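agent> Task received from the user: take the single chain below, predict its 3D structure, and emit structure tokens. No templates, no multimer pairing.
agent> Plan: (1) validate residues, (2) run structure prediction, (3) serialize to tokens, (4) report one or two observations.
agent> Step 1 OK, no nonstandard residues flagged.
tool_call: predict_structure(input=
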Amino acid sequence: MASFSDSGPTSLPLVSPSPSSAAVRYEVFVSFRGEDTRRGFASHLCDALCGKLGISLVYKDEDKLAGGDSIGPELLKAIEESRVAVVILSRNYASSTWCLEELVRILECRHRKGQRVLPIFYDVDPSDVRKQRGSFGVGLEKHQRDFEQLERWRNALTEVANLSGFTSADYRNDSEMVKDIVEKIWRELSPTFRSISKPLVGMDRRVRAVIKLLGERDRDVRMIGIWGMGGSGKTTVAMAAYDAIRLQFEFSTYLAHVRDVCNSNGGLLHLQRQLFEGTASQPAKDLEGWGSFGAIERLKRAFRGKKMLLVVDDVDHQEQLESLAMEHNRHIMDAHGVDSMYETELLDNEEAKVLLCSKALNPEQAMEDFKEVCECVVGYAEGLPLALEVLGSSLRGRSVGEWKSTIEKLKRIPPGKILEVLKISLDGLDEEEKQIFLDILFFCRDWEKQSVVKILESMYLGVNIGIRNLVDKSLVNEGGSKFFISHDLLEEMGKAVVLSECPDEPGKRSRLRGYEEVCHVLTKETGSENVKVMYLRLHDTKRLECGGEAFKNMVNLRLLRLENLQITQGPTYLSHELRVLHWSPYPSKSLPSSFNPHHLIELDLSFSWNLERLWHGHKALPNLIVMNLSHCKNLIETPDFSGTPNLQSLYLKECELLPKIHPSFGNLRKLNFADLKQLVCLKAFPTSLEMSSLKCLQLSGCSKLKKLPDFTGHMECLVELELDGLGIKQLPSTIGSLVGMQTLQIKDCHQLKSIPHSLGCLTSLKEIILQSCPRLEELPISLGSLVGLKELCLWRCDGLRSLPPNLGCLTSLETLTLGSCWKLEHLPPSMGNLLSLELLQIHNCVNLKDLPDSLGCLTSLKQLYLDCCSKLEKLPSSLKGLIALQELSLQFCLRVCSLPELPSQIERIYLNGCISLEEIPDTISLRYGLQMQCFDCLKLDHYPTNRPTDQSDTSALRALRRYLEGHPHPQNQFSIVTPGINVMPDWFNHQSQGSSLTTLKLPDDRHSKNNSDWMGIATSVCFSICYSTNECSDDHICSIGSDLGFLKVSPGVVTEGANHVWLSYIPKDPNKPKQWMLQPNIELSFKGGCSHVKIKRCGYRHVYRHDTTEEECTNNMQGVPLQSEGQPWNDDDTSQRHRVSVLGFRSSKKQQHLMLVPRGKRVNWELALLKSGLLTSLICHRRLQLVPWHEPVVLGANVISFILKLCSNCSRVFTSPIISFPLLALFLVLFGILFVLGKP
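)
tool_result: status=success, residues=1240
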């Protein structure tokens, strides 16, 4: 683990005093010129501030600007109310009067209020800003203003240019600069912006102790346990330490309330999903379907090799640690192998007084007046932070006399009875607030806030004020979207209060929560009118024998939740006061006929397999908001929905015997969400829908539903419509009235033949998914009207023959997926107009023969997948125009022989299974390194007929050499896999049989930025994969790895037992050294991720600066003969070796070479010709197997033969004869001169 020292840029420019927190509304204000950085750097910076730091209060100067020449008062106010102002000075910044006025106001706030100002010089020189030269001088000249105004702007530009900031020229890319900026802003905001807002008394010393334990030993993984008595500040210490060091990690996540979350349904998987999203930067859907154990394995794989910080708070079972990774139960920590333990210290007397006064005294109250009573209260709290907070909050604003009255109560409590001390905090609450506190504790603490407030408002007055008082008195916390009791001790205190109502008989208490209590009351039928709340959630189903009269006397029962408790006999009576009825599984076929659900707000009888209907006839439920009858497999009838006019959410998923939906469903005007999935017997559905509030309608899996209803009335709110697996043949034409719809999903509709022309009216559509609709032959021409569409997915639409010719009108389209569209032969030329397209995926379109030349116009395209297009023979030459392309996949394109010139910024190429591929793209111009996979490309290097001596001339090695040759200082990794035999190129001068090598010693000056010639390490591994065992986990992804990097092999891309070679180049990075660079020696070994991988040979080579030059490549290459005649080169004659270099160009069919100069007198003509454009490309240099240099006759024959071949190819290489013939003459003269110079 890396040291936690504070390194990085210096502080932001400060002027004391700092801005008052009371006047702060925004943490960061970002001023930028929209046309320069809106879509690039500025958006990346704002996303990083909101994401990495968790800052939600970021104001961009374009958020709410109205048109006009001057900035409005709202913008000026936003500047005034911000802690930090970030000014992005770009080329056109000075051309905007808005930007200049913002800058003036920002600097005024700097002088007047001490606002922090951070300038960022993006693609501009700070001196140009300071002296108003270049674009800044031009920009100011455009403004026809008086001299005074221009002078203000000039002075502002000069001042901001003199402040310490960031310059883009100092960074290789924007991401590195954004990271440094975020870290710098975080350090400035950290004193005022924390995960915890309460006073941190005495926290610095405790946090330093925890951080010291983290950095105690140099280990890859360290686990620190924080333990101590309840209320001693374990969570606060953990959160403060997290705030202090989290930016030093690549990923960081804080998992709170783990125990409570795990006790809820799917809670552990929810935490794993949260962890996966927060630290793996991958969508949580990647964990779906894996189960708990599978999710653990996925997490391990996602975190491998990453520097991350994880805090897990409130753990009480070892399984939770094993599933995630710390808490106050020391036995759990010991069992889990925690490295170090930190026991929280109680506050000393002085710290306790500071904390108490911060919670109890208002600013106008004098400390001297309360000094004596503070001493007394501190003594009773015994240094426990929780007790001090709760007591202080309950005493806030009270007089000295009221303090003394509280002290008298404390005197009656024996020492060590902390719960009795905490009970005093309830004395300051009125009766209704006490009831709200107990209801949240016993029933609502894991519910959404909105639902809790709605339920409580049906029982009490002034609920919002009551909850606010509970929060102010530190009894309740608002954790995200839910309410939590502030602490375990407060929970125990609340339970003790209820227990004191009747210690001997649970049935006479107001609230029941716990298996023993609930079972006693139900089996003994001892429930009384005192019972208001009954709550029991079991993880495993348990059976309970009880009679139907168990609820008869509980006439005041308001909140009932029973989960996974199988009761043998259903109730004959239920309280008419019920607000919430959650009973799963409910034992009877229907609810009691005497039940009056008038007050009911939520009804959940899901997974009740005996339930056939709710009741007979009509009942009024005017307050019902949620109805959940999902997974009631024997439900045969829905209620009359005219009695539920305020229903907002309806769940009927997997009611497998339900034949129809009551017609009144179509008139639920307040319904927001309807889940009607997997109603496999549903045949009758309302003929029309008039649901003005409906946002999501899910009808997937209703396979017997043959016709959809007409969408009439105003249904502009409908955003998502799922129609998977229906028996429909067409969509209703009224679908065009759903003008607010954003997602249309139609899957597995095997009878669907057409889509109406009215689809073009859905101008709000963002996503269309059409999957497994084999009878769909065409899309409506009106599709081109959906100018806001961002994603179009056509998957397994077997009958689709073509796409609309106006497809290019979808100018907002970002993702286009065409999968298994077997009859699709061509793509429309207009698709070159899809300038926003970032992902184009064409998979298994077996009849697709070509791609339009306009493909090269997709300037935003980042990923291009053309896998399994077996009739595709070539890619258009315009591919090099894809200036944003990062990834290209042509896996199993069986007819592709070669690739055109690729754009220089491409980073990943997958050519696995391209059995006709004969050559790979030239790598000399690549900017950002490359990962290339060519598994089973059997025609590369004539594999497997190549001889061991040919291994020095493999495509993989040539590609690596060309990459090094094109980059004098290569800073990005390069990786390539091709077929090969168990022989390694001699270029790797350290080799070994098997998977291990001797100790790799790194140069002493490896950390030097300028002086070292050492550039990095190149490695080579010969391996094969055999799927003869079943030891591969989950998706059978194999891997090969070492301390220097990993290679992942996806399933199905490699023939079993085939030999392959993996070459890689790992550069040094002095600015951010990797872990392996921190050590002087590496025990280098390559390991397979499973037993399928068989490593046969491995090697490495130190790469120095001279290795990246063309001359060194010449000296180490072995070549092929130019002509068959002539005496072969004698490799044993060292005097003849390395005396020539080769110039070549590539024609359409073969490669020609020309020997230019003897070594020692050569000039880099190749590079000059390449730069001049006279040659189309340079090939890799080789040592020629030719005649010795002193045999001019044979050499001349070779040259004549070469010239004849050159003439035959002139029309292909040089398109103009005016250029080609003079050039040939120039070659002859040049050769004559060099021949004379080189003659012995």
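agent> Step 4: summary for the user.
Residues 71 and 101 are 8 Å apart (CA to CA).
agent> Done.
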